[in-house]
Every structure is written in structure tokens, then in C-alpha cells.
Amino acid sequence: MKEKKSILQKLSDISRIHHRAAFTDVAKHTTPKQSAFLKLAAERYSCRDFSPAAVSDEELASILEAARLAPTAVNRQPVHIWVFKSPEALAKLKETSRYTFNAPLVLMVACKPEDAWVRACDGKNGAETDAAIVGTHIMMEVASLGLGCTWVGSFDPAKVLELFPQTEGWVPLALFPIGHPAGKPSERHGQRKSLDELVSEI
């Protein structure tokens, strides 16, 4: 015959059960508190579906300021940004790429290799890296404003120069269609390598 448990034993059992339930997901409870930036980085996704609503002048100014503040090698800043927002400019830009997604605003980030820092040991030019940092600042500020964008590398640089001769002397790196999201992240958005796959300590 089983012995009857005392009230104190029963309370102890309930406490242990509650403790185990509270810490079922050990990783969740041992991971450092998520910073505001990590939360933003996790929520941001490549948006390819936009509503017709315009991006405000204030929002555009904030995005461009984030780009201006981006770090570049030796602070050379060998980067320029073109803003496409008039119907005429956007229509012409569509001739250079299929991937403007009818966004109400598109930024183009370009670089000038002759103005960039060059690594002495092997001649590696930092212009595209600098432009990529600027592009990343743009994407994160867009996300912080509750807007959407995506990085578009599929475009015709020669056609850009032909239609927009004012870009001569610059090497276009990427287009950034920007606007108010009208869709959802793709199924692949949350797919990331684990830290074990991504990181090695030497």
C-alpha cells in the first residue's frame, strides 16, 4: 500500500513540476536578453510587395541620413546615392531591372573605386565593401521606420548609364525599392545557419 503524501510533500511536488514547465525551453532561458537591434534584424525581411502609399519626405530624409552616417574605410566615403521617386524616373528605371516591384521609391547606391581605400598587400579595393555598408544602413533604417525594402543586384549597369547619364563615373552596386509593405516574408526568411556552422573560434 502506498504511503499517503503529506501536504508539504504535495506542495514540493507541485513546485518541482512548475519549475520544470517554466524551463522546458532551456535555450530560451539561457540566451542573453535580445537587444533592440537584434529584434529589428530578426523582424526585417526582403519586401517585394508594396502598397501604393508614398514614402514621406521625413522618412526619406531619415533613410538618407542613416546612409550618410555609414562607416567607410579610412572615411573615404567613395559612395553616391541616387533617388528615384518621380513617375518618369521610376518608369525609366524599370527598363534597367525587372525587380523594382512597383515601389514608390527606389534608391541606387553606387561607388567610385578610384576614391576608395586600397589594401596595400594585395591591391584589394574597398569601394564595393563601403557601398555595401551604406546599403545595409539603408535597409536597417527602412526597417526601423516600419517600411519595407529589398536589396536588388539584378539590373543592367550599362542601361542605367544610358538612361541616366548623370551617373557616369560611378559603379552602381544595388537598387533598393522602398515603400509600405503589402505582403509577408517568404518561407525562407527564418532559415539561418546555426552558430556552430557559422562561427569558428581560433
Q: What does this protein structure show overall?
A:
- This protein has a domain at 40-179: NADH Oxidase (3-Layer(aba) Sandwich).
- 38% of the residues lie in helices and 12% in strands.
- The chain has helices at residues 7-22, 26-30, 36-43, 57-68, 87-93, 127-144, 157-163, 195-198; strands at 79-84, 105-111, 148-149, 171-179.
- The chain has a 4-stranded antiparallel beta sheet.
- Helix 4 (57-68) runs antiparallel to helix 6.
- The longest helix is centred in the last third of the chain and has 18 residues, at 127-144.
- Mean pLDDT is 89; it is low at 17-30.
Outline:
The protein is of the alpha+beta class and 202 residues long.
Order of helices and strands: HHHHEHEHEHEH
User: Structural class, from helix and strand content?
Assistant: alpha+beta
Examine the secondary-structure arrangement and name the CATH architecture of the domain at 40-179.
3-Layer(aba) Sandwich
Shape: globular
How confident is the prediction overall: mean pLDDT? 89
Terminal CA distance reads: 61 Å
Total helical segments: 8
Care to count the β-strands?
A: 4
By CATH, the topology of the domain at 40-179 is NADH Oxidase
What profile does the largest beta sheet have? 4 strands, antiparallel
The poorly predicted ranges are 17-30
Give Rg in angstroms.
25 Å
> In what range is the share of β-strand residues?
5-15%
Query: Biggest sheet: strands side by side, in what order?
Result: 1-2-4-3
User: What is the class of the domain at 40-179 in the CATH system?
Assistant: Alpha Beta
The CATH H-level homologous superfamily of the domain at 40-179: NADH Oxidase
What fraction, in percent, of the residue positions are helical? 25-40%
